Amino acid sequence: MDKVVSSAADAVADIPDGATLAVGGFGLCGIPSVLIEAVLEAGTTDLEAVSNNCGVDDWGLGRLLFEKRLRRMISSYVGENKEFARQYLSGELEVELTPQGTLAERMRAGGSGIPGFYTATGVGTQVAEGGLPWKYDSEGNVVVASPPKETKVFSTAEGDKEYVLEEAIVADFGLVRAWKGDRHGNLVYRDSARNFNPLAAMCGRVTIAEVEELVEPGELDPNDIHTPGVYVQRVVALTSEQAADKRIEKTTTRPRPAGLADDAATHGLGG
């Protein structure tokens, strides 16, 4: 089945207001930026996003956030986005902060048909006991807090241990970015850009993948495929310009030591 869609706009055209989106990426690495822009241009609003973080103020999911298209976020880290903090603390955005490993497993479980699982992460804290502020009002009062979660004691090699029940996440749509993909939806991610992408692809009922390089079926080595095409319903081939448009959250540089620079020149090493 050829799953290639002519444009990102066509791929996201049926995402309705109020939908839940599972979005791949970590920071700005491996984010489906073209699909996010298409959702922004479509005017879709009242969205719930499930993603490790919410981009930055002017890129990634931060673009949807700035236009107030997001009503709720399930994420594990939000420290690079000032607008996120402002909306959350002023009562404009509901936020369910989730431990990073737990978030990953909730998404994986959703894609595997597992409704929930027990984990030791969060036992003895508000993650399990409830009371984490999910939403404030404009005066700074907590109006929605996390509920208490079921706990259970299991016998382990180290003795009896308490675990907390976490529910799986299944999103209406998954948005991911891959290095290579074929027309059947098989995807390969590159290095650290894999991050949350396979999990977002798994837990979306309809998953849309933007791919930097589109290849024909059979060109990908089955041993190299990270996301099988069964999880992917639509594929968008990026232009070379779109594929090259990758941002960096923070660029840190330092001058090359003089001695090292001299050695590089002496031995004909490029900078």
Helix content: 10-25%
Q: Which stretches are low in confidence, meaning pLDDT under 50 for 5 or more residues running?
A: none
Rounded to an integer in angstroms, the radius of gyration calculated over CA atoms is 21 Å
Beta-strand proportion: 25-35%
Largest sheet: 8 strands, mixed
Mean pLDDT: 93
The overall strand count is 13
Gross geometry = globular
* CATH level-two architecture of the domain at 8-115 and 168-244: 3-Layer(aba) Sandwich
Could you state the CATH homologous superfamily of the domain at 8-115 and 168-244? Glutaconate Coenzyme A-transferase
CATH uppermost class of the domain at 8-115 and 168-244: Alpha Beta
- SSE topology string: HEHEHEHEHEHEEEEEEHEEHH
Distance between the termini: 46 Å
Overview of this protein structure:
The protein is of the alpha/beta class. The chain has a domain of about 180 residues: Glutaconate Coenzyme A-transferase. It has nine helices and 13 strands. Strand 2, helix 3 and strand 3 form a beta-alpha-beta unit. Helix 5 crosses helix 7. The longest helix has 13 residues. The radius of gyration is 21 Å and the shape is globular. The termini are far apart. The mean pLDDT is about 95.
Descriptive tags:
271 residues; alpha/beta; Glutaconate Coenzyme A-transferase; eight-stranded mixed beta sheet; 13 strands
